[in-house]
Amino acid sequence: MYDRAGVTRVLLALADVGLGIPTQEGLERLGRDVRWSAAHAAGPAPGMAPLPDVVVVDADGDGAALAAAVEAWRALDPPPGILGLGLTAAAAGHATACRIPLCSPGATATELAAAIDAAARMRLAASMSPALARRALDLPADAPPAMVTAAARTVDVELARAALRWHAHSYATATEVVAELRAARALIVPEIETLGQLSGTRTVQTVVRAGPLEPYATARLLWVLASLGAVTFSPEPIDAATPARRALRELRAHLRARAARLDRGTFYDVLEVPPAAETEHVMTAVALLERRYGLAATSAHDLGDCAALAAPAWDQIERAKKVLLDIASRGRYNDWLRDHWSEIRTSWAIDATATRAAGEAYARAQHALAAGDPHRALSEAAAAARLHPGHPDYETGLAWARYRVEVIGGADAAAAARRERKVATAATAGVRPWPRALVALALLCIADRDADSARWHLREVLAIDPGSPAARQLMTRLGG
Questions:
Q1: pTM
Q2: What average pLDDT does this structure show over 433-437?
Q3: Domain locations in the chain?
């Protein structure tokens, strides 16, 4: 590397000599200022000078090592642009995780040089901080936030877009720093209106498109707000502090769990009904599923990277409904299941005798709990879950009975509550709302000293069954 004004200094921080030397030679033939150094594959050396403008790293290697090296390079002042070389699917994942662009090692020298130039131009877009924002805006290090905000209105929009690119599906949430900017009169009226969208339930890409500012102005605003700590980006809603955030978090979790739960599942698993289900039971199941997965329910939320799961989930429900409501179609489907039994994974396409026996065992468990006999309840609940594994009522009923017995036996109540709550949460994820299962989950939330979550689940029960005595009594206890 040579410190020549106006020339981009490139460091090939590649441990693989077979990749480093040919890449260096190809770039040198184009007259590029380039150096290969395997010693810098793990990051910069202390006191390194002159600093490179662009560092090229191997994205095909170990992801954790790459992440550590990238962070070390970004800690320099000024940070270099970073470009990954990689060909595999793992390399693409590593590059995305590290927020670096990726170029194929098979690219021509001209293509690689163009990627290096782009990385050099966007070197200040790798992360968002007050120091990088001031440097990008050519402001002094002590420039106040109001000055930074004003200058950002004319920043190169490509820099803002490059910085936001990695957060397109992240949720934007305003912080208390916004109040400081408003107090300093750093924001104009359309910008203040845009702040109303930063509630933590909209993704960056949605906010950019929504207005009232035009998209480029919104991108600049989000960039400077994030740089100043006035907005945070998170892959999930940052917390469940508001009903809207909690609803979004719950729906995203249900959609992901449903996709995993129904891998190789049957139409009976889709609707959560047994093979002998009557028309009335099928329609009830569909109505409950529609409350959670219907297009009206899912379209009311900005689902971010889970949006692709919503329509397929409802389409699957509609197909299952169509087949199971038609006697002839159900018969043909059952024949198909018998021929492909080894290929499926099911909790619901089980023998009618087992279904009936599981229901009877669950009823006995409930009666035992009401009679104050948790040990008998545990035995019966375990039988129900064994006969019909995966049924939300039976799995959550077993978790609650197990908690009761553990506490009676002297186990740590808080630890038992947390443990069984996880079991119950998993049993109710990705399925339709089962009122009795949600009541059991609410009881475990109460035991875990999380009254807000208990109220949330009880409200869902009461929305389905307003007369549920258990839910009403618990809600009264909680002051809901």
A1: 0.87
A2: 97
A3: 9-124, 130-234, 243-343, 352-478
